[in-house]
């Protein structure tokens, strides 16, 4: 059996958590990441490992039965992941229609997966239906996106259009736009179901006055997705109180669609 600490997927996860912390998106124990492991990686690194513990999930997700996930731990600080991956991360296999998570590695101090596990697993189900290549769900608290939810209309079309207008490349990176949930109690199946519902039509879901969820095919891409939306929100927060003299027009956004071969969310451009 190969050493999990040397697995490329684990090294990438550690790098990502450190990078998110360095960006200021994950204060204290804020944020969480889940990565659906490839069959090949699971076979190489996990077959034959004994089940260390069986942890009830409190929800069902039959679509994920037998799938392996690398997930950040509840109460853990992203800044500490690189110093002790085995305590701060865990690898689980979902069984019983998703109702049980078998711990195969990690959470070495007796911990368990993030309190936002329902939102993560339900979002994986939702994104895999749209994009079978989806592997990552990522949650964090980027300051400018959060700030924007205090001062901007939370209507999804209005929120998305503002972000698209803030940086030229936004519409290329997230042509499906950004979906928005109102403030809801976090850590519950309810917010998990609501997040997954929003994930059906976009890879970014803002949790008002809390943070953002992103989904993508790998850690780099998902990080970059949130990074791009956060950059746009930063520009917005710099200019929101100033007279807007120039902007990116819908005609220009259409030019970007053509140049980069992307299709903006239906009905979002004039
Ligand atoms: O504590 O970010 O939403 C981790 C979180 C909960
Ligand atoms: Zn959070």
Can you give a write-up of this model?
By secondary structure, the protein is of the alpha+beta class. The chain folds into two domains: 114 residues, L-fuculose-1-phosphate Aldolase; 155 residues, 3-Layer(aba) Sandwich (L-fuculose-1-phosphate Aldolase), CATH 3.40.225. The chain contains eleven helices and nine strands. The chain has a nine-stranded mixed sheet, with helices on both faces. A hairpin with a 3-residue loop joins β8 and β9. The chain is elongated, with a radius of gyration of 19 Å. Dihydroxyacetone binds next to loops.
Q: How do you describe this structure in short?
A:
The chain has 270 residues and is of the alpha+beta class.
Strand content: 15-25%
Top-tier CATH class of the largest domain? Alpha Beta
- The helix-and-strand class reads alpha+beta
CATH superfamily of the largest domain: Class II aldolase/adducin N-terminal domain
The number of distinct β-strands equals: 9
Helix tally? 11
Shape: elongated
The average pLDDT is 98
Query: Segments where pLDDT lies below 50 for 5+ residues?
Result: none
CATH architecture call of the largest domain:
3-Layer(aba) Sandwich
Taking strands numbered 1, 2, ... along the chain, how are they ordered across the largest sheet? Answer: 2-5-4-3-1-6-9-8-7
Q: Give the N-terminus to C-terminus distance in angstroms.
A: 56 Å
Q: Please provide the ordered H/E string of secondary-structure elements.
A: HEHEEHHEEHEHHHEHEEHH
* Attached small molecules: Dihydroxyacetone, zinc ion
**Taking Cα atoms only, what radius of gyration do you get, to the nearest Å?**
19 Å
Main β-sheet description: 9 strands, mixed
Instruction: Tell me roughly what share of residues is in helical segments.
Output: 40-55%
Structural domain count: 2
- Say what the CATH topology of the largest domain is: L-fuculose-1-phosphate Aldolase
């Amino acid at each position: 059996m190969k050493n999990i600490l040397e697995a490329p997927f684990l090294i990438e996860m550690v790098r990502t958590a450190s990078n998110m912390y360095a960006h200021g998106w994950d204060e204290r124990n804020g944020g969480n990441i889940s990565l659906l492991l490839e069959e090949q990686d699971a076979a190489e690194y996990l077959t034959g490992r004994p089940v260390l513990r069986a942890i009830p999930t409190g929800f069902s997700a039959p679509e994920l039965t037998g799938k392996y996930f690398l997930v950040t731990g509840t109460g853990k600080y992203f800044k500490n992941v690189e110093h002790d991956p085995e305590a701060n991360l865990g690898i689980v296999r979902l069984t019983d229609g998703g109702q049980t998570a078998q711990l195969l590695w990690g959470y070495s101090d007796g911990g368990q997966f993030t309190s936002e596990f329902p939102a993560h697993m339900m979002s994986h189900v939702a994104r895999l239906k749209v994009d079978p290549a989806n592997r990552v769900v990522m949650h964090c608290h980027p300051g400018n996106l959060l700030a924007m939810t205090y001062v901007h209309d939370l209507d999804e079309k209005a929120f998305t259009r503002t972000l698209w207008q803030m940086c030229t490349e936004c519409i290329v990176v997230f042509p499906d736009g950004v979906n928005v949930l109102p403030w809801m109690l976090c850590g519950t199946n309810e917010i998990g179901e609501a997040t997954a519902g929003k994930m059906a039509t976009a890879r970014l879901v803002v949790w008002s006055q809390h943070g953002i969820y992103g989904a993508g095919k790998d850690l780099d891409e998902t990080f970059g997705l949130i990074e791009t939306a956060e950059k746009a929100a930063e520009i917005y927060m710099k200019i929101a109180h100033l007279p807007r003299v120039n902007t990116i027009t819908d005609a220009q956004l259409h030019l970007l669609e053509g140049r980069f071969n992307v299709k903006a969310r239906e009905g979002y451009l004039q």
